[in-house]
Structures are given as structure tokens and as C-alpha cells.
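Usage

Read records sequentially. Each one opens with the input sequence:
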Amino acid sequence: MKYSGAEITIKLLEKEGIDIITGIPGGTNLPLYSALAKSKIRHILARHEQGAGFMSHGMARSTGKTAVCFACSGPGATNLMTAIADAKMDSVPIIAITGQVPSSLIGTDAFQEVDTYGMTIPITKHNFLIRSAEELLSAIPEAFRIASEGRPGPVLIDIPKDVQLETIEIESFDRSFEEDGLPIYIDEVEIEKAARMINRSRKPVLYTGGGIILSGAEDMLLNFSHKSSIPVASTLMGLGCFPSGDNMFIGMLGMHGQRYTNYIMHEADLILAFGARFDDRATGKVKEFCPNAKIIHIDIDGAEMNKIKKADIAIQGDIKQAIYGFRGGELAVFQQCQKLIANNLSLANNYRSAPQVTNFNNLLFANLLPLGEGFCGTDSFAVDFDSQCSPDQLSEHDSEQKIFVRPCEIEEREDLSRLSSSQMDRYEADAIFDQILTLLNRCSRGEKIAVLYLKLAPSRHLISRLIDQQTPFIAQVKIPFKDDPLIGIFQQLVDIGCELESEMPQKNYSVLVISAYLEILGIPIPDQLRQMIDDFFLQTRVSGIYHSFQKMLFVAGISSANYRNNMEHLESICQMEGDNYQALSYQLTSGQDRETYSYDFHFGNEPRSVVIMTVHSSKGLEFDNVILGGIHTNGRAMADGGTMGTIPASFKWKAGVGSKLIFRSPYYLLESILNGKKSFSEKKRLLYVACTRAVSSLSWIDIKLGTKPQSSGKNSWINGLRTVTGQFSSECRIEYENIEGKESVTHVR
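and closes with the structure output:
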């Protein structure tokens, strides 16, 4: 059955449980209102778009559910922005759906056209500029997920009028709204040194914010306050999280709070900040806020940690996946918290993985996590492991083989007693490629295969092999900031601008370079590329360089993995240098040589079946099939700045090593040993993250030189897998069989 983009939007909103929409109709969103007239969703007509936004704001806060508001383009969208910005600051989940001029008119300064997408980037959690009716099927469910997960906030969906009118064939809407079946993780992460800090403190105060209400932790807060006899102060957003008539409630703090509350806060020697963000209305002068107090900060949003007020303890994350050591997180905090909390909650059922994957991970990590360096002895930084069960509804997958270990047997030669790291990475990449082909032949269409690496360096061999064999994929790669295609296109336009100023225009070279960048991004080269460039310079006279560039990108359909960061960088440069091409050129070519970022490199027409990325980036995601990559060489020491910094020369001690002199203080050496142990423990937790991303199957490669397993670093993942799987091989009933009569494959079930 055919549906228009407007009808799809309303159907999707119905599926999300929306029963009230606030808004004002206009020329660019009339198709949405025509579709709304056929729906059971009630519409509340506002007198001003800002009012519509705040109505949805109020509904979301009072119900705890995501609310929706409508506005048209131009002044309708700009009127809505105040409410959107307020929702962002107050962590309120709303979906703002705005009409936009037809796609063909975007960038032409058409009637009531404004850059709604660009203007709302700083005040939303995420925003979407829809380019086709089909895109709505994924964008709207994704918008609701983003708005409500983690720290809630607003999401904007900008829909051009022609997209609202576009019709496509849709058999069913049910698939778009299937829940992943993933439960909400309840992280009972509460106080580490808090035990000692609270016991030692004489004047502790609970500083509570809106996060308590959003997480539904009012009862827990009440019990905690009464059991510990700690008084409770609240921010404006936190009012209501604690009974105002309770003897332990001391009122609202800050500029608009009670004087006595601020006096008490000032005298406190310990502040327990729960779900609050230390905003200026509460703190006043930050340096003078609670000057004698230590601070324990607990919040779902890691970006708020140490942003305004430095915390003595900052707590965020799930204990087994607490891979925030590189941010200064301490595992001891989480471990002590669990001991202190009487009723720890844990996820008993695994709703993500098939039973065999779940059972394997239970056996693997129950044995692996307690092991010390070299996968022997004990790990003082190990986490407690709770086994999980698979729900009954997944039991039909029991008969399928889910864990694959592919031996990579290399011909043994006299001159080849040990492989180098580079050789192991290449051999492993070849074997992973074979495993990818095997899985692609077995998988149904749409299934994803993810190759997860601790570090990206070994992935270059696999990427080269995939490109050589014309196998589509998406790969996370590290590239210099200045080499990003989007930055490169802007650089070429600036170069042309410099030539125009010097009255020596030579566009041919820049046009060729821009064409090459478009090919890298997978964008078809427009027939009128030269005309687009000419239009860009015409637009700069009215809109300036930055906004003209934004319009050009949209018209051409250009984006990149780092689009938002890049555009923010370019905007800051343009604000600093204005429309001076010479100054812009200098800023673009200086100071960025060493900066890199992760970029999603797309290869092929249908690249989404195969994904290459780091384990860090995979946290929170899931894939049908997971292959562990780089597991033979990831034991190499990682760069670690540690907490020491540079040791002053006067504090260094001398020790002879061969013909060289190494200068290290005892403190430095002890700190290095401690950091090494912490790093090893974190690697094991990263392996846990990688293995638990798998839904249907988990695979890895075991390189053998002849018939002997190739030795690797003592802390490499392959050594841990070999050690531990050997211990419980009988429990897993390991079998050997041939796949298509070629290589031996081990199945663990």
C-alpha cells in the first residue's frame, strides 16, 4: 500500500503511543496536518509556536513520556527554538517536527526558508534533515530513542514539503517499531570512598537535581537520607524529588533558594551531588561554592562530570563495562559501591544474544576475569561476574552452532620460527576475510557482521583485502583532521576565493580535487559542479562563507562521519576570521597536523553488512555476527600518559640498561607497574564488551605455525582465550569438522 511522507509520519507517531500533538499549521507543514486529520491523535492549536513547544515541554515533564510539537518553516521554526533550548537545558524529551521548503528550493533563500537544521544543532541532542519519505521509517523511531535514553532531551526532525508529499510502497509499519528487547540497565553505582567520606564527615549534605526525578529514584533518595541522617537540598529542577515537609529537607539552594539552605551548603564538608549539574543559578561563584566540601558526583551524563566543579569521586557506568579508565575512572569506586548497597540489582536474563553465545560468555568470563597478568594468578582489579540466562523465547536457536574458532595454519619453515606482529596481523586479516565470506554466504540479507579491534592499526590489512576483493564495508579509521573530505572541499573553495581576490582564478584544479573528495564520500559528482561552485560564491555575498557552504553541502547531499564536529570547527574559524579568504586559508593549514579523529569510511554500494570498528565504539551496540580482530598483537603496551606527567630531573634515579642510561624514580616505577595492571584489567573488560555485542555468532582466528599455536604477547586476547577455553573444553563439547572440505573449524557450544 502506498503512503505519503506525511501519512508515514503520523502512522509512526501513532505507533510510538503519541495521543496529543501541539502546534500551528503553515504552508510547509499542511500535508502533515492533512494526514493528522485522519488520525485519532488529538491536536492542540497554540497561538504561538513557542507556546506549542512549552506545552509539549509540560506534557513530557508531567507524564515522563516523550511529547511532540509541530511548526512550519521560517518564523515557525525560529519561534519554536526557545522551547527547544529550554528542553535541552532541563533534560526534557520532546520531538519537534518542522516543515521545510521543498528540497529543490533549499539554499535559494526561498520564502520562509531558514537553516533549521544548522540553527538547532547547538540546542538539540540530535536533529534530522529528511531527504526522502523512506528515511522517515528509521529517523522517527531513532528520534524517540535518542530523546528518551540516557540524559533526556529534545530532537528535531525537519521535513521538506516535497518529502511530505512523496509516496512510497509500504507493506507494514510493524517492523519499524519492533523493540530490540533490550531491558533498561539499572546501574546501582553508589558511593565508593563515600563509605569512608560519609563516616568521616561531620556536615554532609545531599545536593539533588532533576536526574532523581527522571530516573524515578525518589523512594531510594528518601530511604538513603533517613538511614544516613543526611539532609537534602534541591535545585529548582529537583523540587518534588524529596517530600518538602520531611524533617530532612532543607529547601532549595542557589540564587532563588532559601538563605539558610545556602548557609548550610556553605558550611558542609561533604556534598553528595545526585542528578545535578552545578549550574550557575545554584552555585553562584563556583570558587566560593561549598569551599570546604569534598564532592561525590553521580550522574547519567558523563559530560557533566568535572565540567564546572571538580569532583573527588565521579561515578558513571556499568561495572563489567566500566571502560573509562582513560578518563580517570577508578574501578575501586564501583566495587566498593556494590559492597555498600544492600540490594544490588543485576540483569538476570540476556535479551540480546542467542543461548549458545550467552552460555559461552558465562563460562569464558567466569574463568577469565579473575586471572592476573599473563592470564595466571589473580587480578586485584578484577570485577565480580554474574552469569546470565537466556529467556525461553530464544530457545529455538539452541541447535545452531554459534562460536567459531578458525585455525589459520601457516607452513612451517626453518627460517620462520616466530612471526612478527605485522605478519600475524596480515595472516589474521586473510583468515578474517575468509570467515566474513563464510558468514555472508550463511547469513540472511540484512544481517550485520562486525569485526571489533582493541586498536585500529591491525585493521588496515583487512581493509586492504576487502577493497581488493570488492567486498562492501564500513570501517572506522583514524585520519588527520585536515584530511577529512569535507574539510578538503572547504579548503578548495577558500583557495578559489583567494585566487578571485588576487584576480587569478584557476578553478580547474580545485574542481578536480572536489570531485575526488566526492568520490571518497560516495557522492555522485553533480553535472553542474562548476555552477554549484559559482553559486556558492554568489551566496557568500548575502549569507557569508559558512552558511553558503552549509547550503552547498545540503544541495549536493554531502555529509561525513564527523560532520557536526567539522562544521562546528569551520564555524568557529569563520566567526574568528570573518569572510577573509586569506586568513581562513592560513587557519586551515596551520595547527591541525597532529590532530586525528575517527572517520567512517564507506566502500561499495551496500556497505552496511560488514562493519569494522573499535571495541570502545561498539559499547552499547549489537551485531548479528561478531569477529574478534587483532587478538594476537593487542598485548603490546598501550600509550599511557598516566597521572605522573614528566618527572623533574632532580627527582630521577639512574639505572644502567646495556649501554644506555634510563632515569626513573621509584615512585614512577611503582606507578608504572600499577598502571600496567589496571590496563590489563581494562583490556579484559573490553574483551567482555566485544564478546557480548554478538547476537547470533562469535568468531576469532587462531594462528598456528605448522601445528603449533603461534606465541603472542602474554596479555593478548588470544592467549586468554586459549588458556580459558582449554579449561572448560569438556563442558563446551568442542567438536572439529570441515567446512566445504577446506579448513578445520572448531565449534564451541
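Summary fields computed downstream for this record:
- Residues 2-177 form a domain with the Rossmann fold fold (CATH 3.40.50.970).
- The first strand starts at residue 2 and ends at 4.
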